[in-house]
Write a structure and sequence with these properties.
One of its GO terms (biological process) is DNA repair. InterPro entries: HAD-like_hydrolase_sf, HAD-like_sf, HAD-SF_hydro_IA, HAD_2, HAD_sf, PGP-like_dom2. With 224 residues, this protein is of the alpha/beta class. The chain folds into two domains: 145 residues, 3-Layer(aba) Sandwich (Rossmann fold), CATH 3.40.50.1000; 69 residues, DNA polymerase, domain 1 (Orthogonal Bundle). It contains nine helices and eight strands. α1 crosses α3 and α2 packs across α3. The radius of gyration is 17 Å and the shape is globular. It starts with 5 loop residues before the first strand and ends with a helix. The model has no long low-confidence stretch (mean pLDDT 96).
């Protein structure tokens, strides 16, 4: 038995290791300006807030200098095009996640993927990462026109209302303070994971209700 009626998951760094693809896309984009590459590990702190903010943060990280809003718009769109092509490069589920999703399905416990990644890219990443596992993702919310990014709770609140879920019965799982703040803003329970892109201190500072190190520990939180 579980008190949760819906489990909401972040994507990058939570249910799929997308770091190689993010670094590949980012460095291919930077190379077009004669810059880089940036070490793969550095991308852990440069992602999570949506593609446009990622581009802004990446430019600041490499000390690119000044640019106009018009240039940024074109550069951002170019990055998105590269990410669409390279977004599924070397993606794979984290250890124990396939088994966890299988148990959720067996328990008829619905789950949602809520990400700041472009929605079409997110669906492609999930399909490639979990190919052949029998795990599917019927509910995916990602970045699209008119959509507010996490930690804004608007899209999550709308989903809960549409499907008649009460906030106190929802657990949101993620690896960054963006996800912990989303949970707080939506008044749902927050669980941080340590196998992703950020460290315990960030999750603790963001007031995560739970912090887990393994998928087995996450399973215990869900079904406790």
């Amino acid at each position: 038995m579980t008190r949760y009626k819906l489990i909401s998951f972040d994507l990058d760094g939570t249910i799929v290791n997308t770091l190689p693809s993010l670094a590949r896309a980012g460095n291919m984009w930077l190379a077009e300006f004669g810059i880089g590459p940036v070490d793969e590990a550095d991308y852990k702190v440069l992602v999570g807030k949506g593609a446009k903010q990622h581009v802004i943060d990446l430019l600041a990280f490499v000390h690119y200098g000044s640019y106009t809003d018009e240039w940024l718009e074109q550069a951002w769109q170019r990055y998105v095009a590269i990410l669409k092509a390279e977004g599924s490069f070397a993606v794979q589920p984290y250890t124990g996640l396939v088994e966890l999703f299988q148990k959720l399905k067996q328990a008829n416990l619905p789950y949602l993927v809520y990400t700041n990644k472009k929605e079409l890219v997110a669906k492609s990443v999930l399909a490639n990462a979990y190919a052949g596992t029998g795990v599917d993702f019927p509910f995916v919310i990602g970045d699209k026109p008119g959509h507010k990014l996490k930690p804004d709770p608007t899209a999550l609140n709308a989903f809960l209302a549409e499907h008649n879920f009460k906030a106190q019965t929802v657990l949101h799982v993620g690896d960054t303070n963006v996800d912990m703040n989303l949970a707080k803003n939506a008044q749902v329970t927050a669980c941080g994971v340590l196998w992703g892109f950020r460290k315990r201190a960030e999750l603790e500072a963001a007031k995560a209700n739970f912090i887990v190190e393994t998928a087995k520990e996450l399973e215990q939180v869900i079904f406790s």
